[in-house]
């Protein structure tokens, strides 16, 4: 590896060199969506940011030496509420399945359109209930959890250094929050690991009765199952630092008796609208699907790669104020980039250096743009450009052409060759120009055997 990777670690508040536990299997966990509604473009940001990180790690350690796990949260009270609202006639389990399956499929379609590679594992919470129960049992056995009023709660005071990630002293956990302290909790910051379900709520049998897990425990269970007790990178949006990630850490470390859950904690900044976090609860959101497939935003639809580039033109830890202007800017850049397929070439060291420096996609995009301009004048640069663009996942693809169009172009190219033979240069140039306006580029050469002129063509974009 030529350039050392350095990342900002929320846990230490420092940018340090990344040293994987096992370079043959670099392990990353990112908290995925709660599947009850279309994902908004704020939710697209972690998908894109951690996809770039995944691509970078695959490049450095080898594609087969990185394991990326991103979960699907398919048990949540918001899902129940949506299932009851949308499918009042169906049995609850069936209604929930309809909601989660539909949302999950939509999510996959949306982020595939944004150029995100599928993770290596994408576990669902409901497929990991026994693993969650096991961790909760261990926590109770080790006096880190207790049962009260049908709930199993994590005892935050039982962990000496609770709060390291968010740096909130325990006594201040809820100061000022004006949340009535539930009488059954030992400490106001104690959180639910398991709660009982009524008959019309989804539930699983457990040592504490038929119930369902709290939100945080699922990520502790799934990350352990797929990545181990201690792994390399844990990611998500800034809003997850507290309470979600803090509580994941508490559960995993106390259950396994480890010093850390993950070595490196990375958090992306918010996509904002008029200075406020875009959020479902505030109603100030636009879904990925609306942006890609409708005219809701700026009176037109936008290609996925434009949205992706627009996101990467800001550093992942900075907030993004989302606007039409930003999308237009990204689109203008992309239009100037040559279409290419990713090949075996090495990426440009300057792009690598930028990404190795805490994923500086802003500098990487600037360099990529300069490279694109060079490549437009010198096609020998295209393979390096393509390899660099592929690291960011923003490689303009050669446009697909249907057969009817292709044979019409072939016919025009043949006609032009006839014109050239007949020295009718004006007509020949006219055909070349007309095709050029449609984005079809002609290349003249000679057949090495016969010495005759041959012309090939390609779609620029
Ligand atoms: N505006 C945003 N900008 C950047 N990341 C976000 C934003 N909103 C949510 N995320 C991230 O998206 C991922 C999916 O989270 P989740 O499904 O919990 O979001 P959410 O609950 O829809 O947010 P909200 O309900 O507040 O709109 C998380 O990593 C979360 O941090
Ligand atoms: Zn999580």
Automatic annotation (TrEMBL):
Reactions performed catalytically: tRNA(Cys) + L-cysteine + ATP = L-cysteinyl-tRNA(Cys) + AMP + diphosphate
Required co-factors: Zn(2+)
Annotated GO MF terms: cysteine-tRNA ligase activity
Binding site for ATP: 280
Its EC number(s): 6.1.1.16
Keyword line: Aminoacyl-tRNA synthetase, ATP-binding, Cytoplasm, Ligase, Metal-binding, Nucleotide-binding, Protein biosynthesis, Zinc
Enzyme class, first EC level, given as a word: ligase
Name used for this protein in its record: Cysteine--tRNA ligase
Subunit and partners: Monomer.
Residue span, tRNA synthetases class I catalytic domain: 18-331
Motif interval(s): 'KMSKS' region: 277-281
Domain Cysteinyl-tRNA ligase anticodon binding, first and last residues per copy: 405-447
Amino acids binding Zn(2+): 31, 219, 244, 248
Major location category of this protein: cytoplasm
Native organism: Neorhizobium turbinariae
Free-text remark on how the cofactor is bound: Binds 1 zinc ion per subunit.
Gene3D superfamilies: Cysteine-tRNA ligase, C-terminal anti-codon recognition domain (1.20.120.1910), HUPs (3.40.50.620)
Renumbered residue ranges of the record's region Disordered: 442-461
Signal peptide extent: none
InterPro entries in UniProt: Cys-tRNA-ligase, Cys-tRNA/MSH_ligase, CysS_C, Rossmann-like_a/b/a_fold, tRNA-synt_1_cat_dom, tRNAsynth_Ia_anticodon-bd
Family as reported in the entry's similarity comment: Belongs to the class-I aminoacyl-tRNA synthetase family.
Compartment annotation: Cytoplasm
Keyword ATP-binding recorded: yes
Motif ('HIGH' region): 33-43
